[in-house]
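thoughts on these tokens:
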Amino acid sequence: MKRVLLLGASGSIGQQTLDVISSNNGNFELVAFSVGEKVDLVSTIIRLHPSVKCVCIKHGEYIDILKKQHPRISFFSGDEGLIKIVKRAKYDLVVNALVGFAGFPPTIAALKKKATICLANKESLVVGGEIVNRLLKKGYGKIFPIDSEHVALAKCLSQAAQNHVSKLILTASGGAFRNHSKEQLSDVKAADALKHPTWQMGAKITIDSATMMNKGFEIIEAHYLFNYEIDKIDILMHDESHVHSLVKLDDGTLLADISEPDMRVPITYALFEGQTQFSCTRIKSLKQLDNFHFHDFDAAKYPCVALAKEALRMGGTALAVLNAANEVAVYAFLENRIPFLSISELIAKELNYVKVKRQTIRNVIEADRLTRLHLRKVLGN
């Protein structure tokens, strides 16, 4: 029985992780978790998982109430609380399903405990991939990605010798605006961008899908996870989201991972540390392949991908600047304060200002802070 600490239990990945844990209750038990604003979920999760001993919430003013309701539970709050729960809870696996930069410090804290991390938080590798890999090389913990594309790549790469791989190919749905021209994107609204054609996800990642910054982030993650350079990682548009990634070999052969779009597949793969255990809705017939649609990636329509590649080439703290600028711009768009196309424009301007420093924890945190401060001044808040 493996003990699980789940960071971000109230989000889409967190809720599906709870489903996987409940479906495999002979293999896993939830011993600690965090939630953000949805404090009302705390009691429900504790009731369904009586093995819980530690909980972190976003706002400390609710702790006294929760302690009265659950006197045997240790409660923490805020960003400091996330670090405390990582350091103090007793667990075998950490599922980091936090959204944004907030997930980076807990990842580092867990690695320093030599923990095994099931990583859904993209930003941990985006802003700190160099730091993470330095820790992994020194024997500090292990990482298994929770991402349909990277799990697909891991499966395909396990069947191929690295020196015979010519390309890693990440598939992309194109998000809510895949059928829009670039000119049509000037008038789109947040409500439109949140209508993803395939996946049910949180607001931030859904906007990242619409701008394709999520795919830019996935290129960065693939670079750090699998040690391939940028020019060996491509994007292929795929409407149905059934082919999750492909690996192209030197002889032209393509290895593909094909399944119904279901995030419980990569979640289970990570929880079982690289073993396929979850039986998802199956491809019923190979005739379904007749209905798959693929398109070339349009770099002009999706400039965020080029910005992500540029930041990766710059290295160091440029990646923290990329992420911070994206987060601020995305939430400004969600609040209807900037138009959709301004997201990439704001990120590009921030990357032009950056003075790249070596990627250390202190430098990354400072680059994140300064970028947010500057952009908030630009946006007038």
Remarks:
- The domain at 2-145 is CATH 3.40.50.720 (Rossmann fold).
- The longest helix spans residues 361-379.
- The chain has a mean pLDDT of 93.
- DSSP finds 15 helices and twelve strands in the chain.
